[in-house]
């Protein structure tokens, strides 16, 4: 049976740290906690779980902080989490089984990462990340912000899921400021930096500036294919906010250069044709969104709304506009099976109730 060190970097996580550690501690042999400058009771809570609590002077570099945490691990494998992540009970049991059965020849184990869910418990978005890595391989974190583990060797995909449970948003400007300071110091951004800086700009509704950085990123022709596709989606959304429909469509269609159409791009086109009252065109794209399979790339971000309830809800609108109310009702019922309390679903439900009872 393998042994596991858990490594976390924390700052002012008194609301979530105990919850995180309680959810995973039965599967651990060691806990390493690196504090980057807490002013609350985070370190006090950490010391209730481990005596291996270390200080790291913050240098605006998440990769450096995570590498520092990894350097203190002593067990066979290193697992990493953030303080607002948890393992649900069934996932903890899967981790215990993995711990018992894992072949020491494995270099890394990926786990699913559920980023968000709706009020009905449906997973809204998820991706996979390398979560458990062999300590003796000395894998390093790369990047000051939106850091990633540089992995090679034998990788397996587990059925374990880490669930993100964000509780606060007081770090909203942190990453943006890190990028801006790096630019001010004359640093030349890598393609990955260009992409993620664009994401930060979008989060702050700086759409024109974000569009420029996404275009710069695509022009390098060095991006990971999933980031290229994501950048096209972000560009389409930026130009939608700016009001430039021609550029919006350009980048929706450009995404098809990198891979077969994805459900979210089909929904963007469906919405475009719905707004221009080309309902048959809209129906085609929304149906395609339902028919398509998600990307086989385990690391790509999945937006489940675009392949489940959202196309059905919009198809309800399209068929209603065409006077095909039976089909419209059918699609509203399918949307309801995913999001029974969605305001549009409830409105449509009442509308059809009155329509068919009249």
Automatic annotation (TrEMBL):
InterPro entries per the UniProt record, alphabetical: Glyco_trans_2-like, Nucleotide-diphossugar_trans, TPR-like_helical_dom_sf
Coiled coil: none
Top-rank taxon, per record: Bacteria
GO MF annotation list: transferase activity
Sorted UniProt keywords: Transferase
Keyword Aminoacyl-tRNA synthetase: no
Domain Glycosyltransferase 2-like residues, every copy: 5-121
PANTHER family: GLYCOSYLTRANSFERASE (PTHR43630:SF2), POLY-BETA-1,6-N-ACETYL-D-GLUCOSAMINE SYNTHASE (PTHR43630)
Record-given protein name: Glycosyltransferase involved in cell wall bisynthesis
Organism expressing this protein natively: Pelosinus propionicus DSM 13327
């Amino acid at each position: 049976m393998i042994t596991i060190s858990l490594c976390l970097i924390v700052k002012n996580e008194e609301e979530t740290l105990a919850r995180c550690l309680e959810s995973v501690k039965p599967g651990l042999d060691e806990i390493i906690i690196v504090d980057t400058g807490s002013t609350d009771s985070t370190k006090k809570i950490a010391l209730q779980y481990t005596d291996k609590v270390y200080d790291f002077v913050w240098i605006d570099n998440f990769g450096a902080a995570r590498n520092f945490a990894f350097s203190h691990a002593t067990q066979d494998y290193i697992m990493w989490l953030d303080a607002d992540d948890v393992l649900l009970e069934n996932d903890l049991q899967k981790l215990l089984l993995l711990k018992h059965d894992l072949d020491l020849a494995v270099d890394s184990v990926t786990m699913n990462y559920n980023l968000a869910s709706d009020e009905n418990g449906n997973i809204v978005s998820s991706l996979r990340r390398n979560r458990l890595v062999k300590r003796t391989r000395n894998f390093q974190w790369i990047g000051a912000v939106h850091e990633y583990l540089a992995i090679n060797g034998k990788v397996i995909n587990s059925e374990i899921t880490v669930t993100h449970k964000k509780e606060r948003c007081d770090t909203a400007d942190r990453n943006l400021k890190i990028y801006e300071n790096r630019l001010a110091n004359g640093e030349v951004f890598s393609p990955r930096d260009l992409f993620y800086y664009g994401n930060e700009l979008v989060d702050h509704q700086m759409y024109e500036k974000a569009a420029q950085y996404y275009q710069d990123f695509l022009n390098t022709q060095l991006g990971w294919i999933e980031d290229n596709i994501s950048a096209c989606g972000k560009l389409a959304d930026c130009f939608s906010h700016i009001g430039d429909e021609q550029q919006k469509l350009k980048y929706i269609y450009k995404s098809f250069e990198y891979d077969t159409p994805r459900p979210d791009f089909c929904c963007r086109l469906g919405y475009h044709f719905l707004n221009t009252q080309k309902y048959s065109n809209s129906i085609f794209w929304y149906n395609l969104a339902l028919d398509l399979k998600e990307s086989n790339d385990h690391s790509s971000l999945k937006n489940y709304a675009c392949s489940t309830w959202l196309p059905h809800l919009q198809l309800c609108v399209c068929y209603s506009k065409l006077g095909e109310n039976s089909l419209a009702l059918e699609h509203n019922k399918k949307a309801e099976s995913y999001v029974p309390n969605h305001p549009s679903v409830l409105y449509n439900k009442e509308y059809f109730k009155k329509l068919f009872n009249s």
